[in-house]
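## Example record

The block below lists the input lines for one assembly entry, exactly as stored, with component labels intact.
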Amino acid sequence: MSTKFRKIILNKLLIYLPVFILFISVFNEFDFNYLNYKYFSFNFPFILIFYLSLKRVEFLGYGYIFIAGLFNDAVLGFPIGVSSLTYLIICGLAAYLKNITLRPNLFKDWVYFLFTILVANSVNYFLLVSFFSIELNYYELSGNIFFTFLIYYIFAHILDFYYKSVLRKKND
Amino acid sequence: MATNREDFVIAIRSAFLKKSNKQRISLIGLILISITLIILGKINLPAINYLKISLNEIVYRSSFIVSIPQKKIHQSIKIINDHYLVYEDYRDIKKKLKDLQLQSKKYEIEFIIEENLRLRKLIDEYVYNSEELIAKVLIDKKSPFLRSIIVNKGTKDKVELGMAVLDGSYLVGKIVETNYSTSRALLISDLNSKIPVSIEPGNIQSILSGTGKFVGKIQYLQNEGLIEKISIVYTSGSGGLFKSGIPIGKINKFAAEDENVVKYFSNLSQLTFVKLVSFKKESN
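Predicted structure tokens for the full assembly:
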């Protein structure tokens, strides 16, 4: 295998690593719940999906997000299709923001992310509570939304840095 | 104003309808598929149930493998915590040893159990025999949404909906979903869990609800004053799903802030192997 070919494969792997992490996080419920801090949990797939749909849509097909949602439903025991719909709503709202934004700004994205997860979670909870009569703990869910919102800012910086490094390496 | 509205419509149309070069299906197409799946799932269409069972089989196994590193981290944290709690453990063990020294009571208890069985047959009460299965916990998610576990036994091992899930002799949940080789058990700590219970001493009948935390709550009680300061909560057997007398937890009015709080006997976050039990009425 030539060095050039190996380099191409490695770059492809690095570019698609966040998508791979998305699938791991839906399989694994990657939210540090096991630390047992009261009300502390966050929704990592929401952060990744919003970020990738907003800034790196070329690396994330909507079909993958739909499948990730189906996997998440199976892991959490939700009715099939609920998480997919929630994830796709996030994609749609992120794509809308991308279309109307001329000069991207992380702080504005962050505030819009709060609006997006509130809408997506509202749809999710409406379906679970009203349509499927599943009881939910609202305090924990509010905590989950709050921490997801806070943590987005950190992850957005990390992902920005990551993609800049990977894409620079690709162009070298 | 009209221009603003047009811009909004164009941006929305572009976001939901337009396919970029990497996307094979438009967003709105996938949203419609999701909504269709939700509606068909709600009306329990057999095709959707088969799809769900197949998906569960794949996902549960994959999730078990993917969760291994996280489980290792969790175990390491537990080992570190255990090191810090050595002294408390020593005191606990000392207390248990003292309890064991009172084992002379054991024969007395055995006699009472035998006598109880005889008397129950005499008054034609249900006497149950049970079938047990040992299952390994594949996935144990403490999600903010649901408290449930996935076990590695399914319909091929004759697991049925409603089977009791026990940790040792303590009730921890019931089977709510069965697949070919896996099943999902809803834990008693889940908000959707409601179990008819009997509180002893006093034989007080009530319902134990999950709270989403490590404690349960006694509901629909006419007179709270009837509960003793320290009481044990057992299944009551009402509804015929579980047999009566399976221990669940303890009410300690001295320790708890809320008097109707039940502390479970079993640690629901540390389940590795569980017993799946179905109770059938014994034919006399």
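The helical segments of chain A are 3-28, 44-55, 62-76, 82-100, 106-131, 138-171. Chain A touches chain B through 54 residues (CB under 8 Å).
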